[in-house]
Amino acid sequence: MKTTKIETIVCGFERDQVIAGQPYAGQDRHNGEIAAFHLSRILGFRKTPIAVGRYLNLEKEVIPNAAPRLLETFFMKDNNTCFYGKCYYCKGKESGACGKKHMMEGTVVLWISHKMQLFRHPWSRTYVQNKKAKWEVDEKFCDKVLQIDMYKGPGVRLLDIIDTAIFDYLIGNADRHHYEIFQYLPDSMLIMLDNGKSFGNPYHDERSILAPLYQCCIIRWATFERLRLLRNGVLSKVLESILSFDPISPVLTTLHLRALDRRVTQVMLTLTNCIKHNGQNKVFMEVDGQGVGEKHIDP
């Protein structure tokens, strides 16, 4: 890992704005990247790049240091400095982000220089209205995933996907269509990149994000133990305390923090149902994908 990149705020997305519509609706939320990074730490995953909020002076800090390709995308709108950058989704001025005058609130994310290998997520969505993916209509879809070499066992990769599904459910991210691992490292952990489609609607819990969990009904024992410690309102208190030190605090609204606690409860209820139908010796796994046998579970 070496340098940093700047992920900018999208104009008009205030902290308390509710993103309605499809579960992956809306543009990325820069504050979501910050909250996601700290949540990953709290859950013991540590698979999300470091993210921290910053106030940037576009005129003094960015424009003098911008590459020519980036510089040519800057423009003025209503006396505010704006730019749209060079990327697949950058569609010109209509997709531009604007500061207030020359100041912009954004998120700085640690850039990972190691080459990545990209994989299609088994539980990815179709992103086509009225067209469902196979996992949405097949309750035994996990059986088919377990036939794929990289997920057999169940292997570490599938347990990583289930950890990520729980993480995404908590933050409300239904946009995990691909995932990355470190290239040339076949046993690499799954890296939780691109968490901007998060914390959009505190009133809605998108249960379909949990499909890998409730269809496979397996989880790392360590993940379960951490969730058990964070239930009953503990998660929101811990995360709120940590986020209070970020330069652009408050990062999340009270409603989003409460939603996290509500979703932890739903994850635990899902696991209770899995244990009821399969027995805990088939639900709980060690880090290497081996069963842990019977464990004492506090009510």
Short description:
This protein is α+β, with helices and mostly antiparallel strands and 299 residues long. The chain has eleven helices and ten strands.
Structure description:
The chain is α+β, with helices and mostly antiparallel strands and 299 residues long. It has two domains: 4-38 and 49-110, no CATH class; 114-285, Phosphatidylinositol 3-kinase Catalytic Subunit, Chain A, Domain 5 (Orthogonal Bundle). It has helices at residues 30-42, 58-62, 68-71, 134-137, 141-145, 156-171, 211-216, 221-230, 234-243, 254-278, 280-283; strands spanning 4-8, 51-57, 74-77, 80-83, 97-98, 103-110, 116-120, 178-182, 219-220, 284-285.
Separate helix tally: 11
CATH topology of the largest domain: Phosphatidylinositol 3-kinase Catalytic Subunit, Chain A, Domain 5
Largest sheet: 3 strands, antiparallel
Distance between the amino and carboxyl termini:
42 Å
Topology as a string of helices (H) and strands (E): EHEHHEEEEEHHHEHEHHHHE
Stretches where pLDDT is under 50 for at least 5 consecutive residues are: 1-12
Spatially, the strands of the biggest sheet line up as 1-6-2
The dominant shape is: globular
What number of domains?
Answer: 2
CATH class assignment of the largest domain: Mainly Alpha
Return the CATH architecture of the largest domain: Orthogonal Bundle
> Share of helix among residues?
25-40%
What value does the Rg take, in angstroms?
20 Å
Strand content: 5-15%
* Nearest-integer average pLDDT: 90
Q: What is the strand tally?
A: 10
Pfam family, one: Fam20C
Subcellular location: Golgi apparatus
Domain FAM20 C-terminal: 74-283
Active site: 175
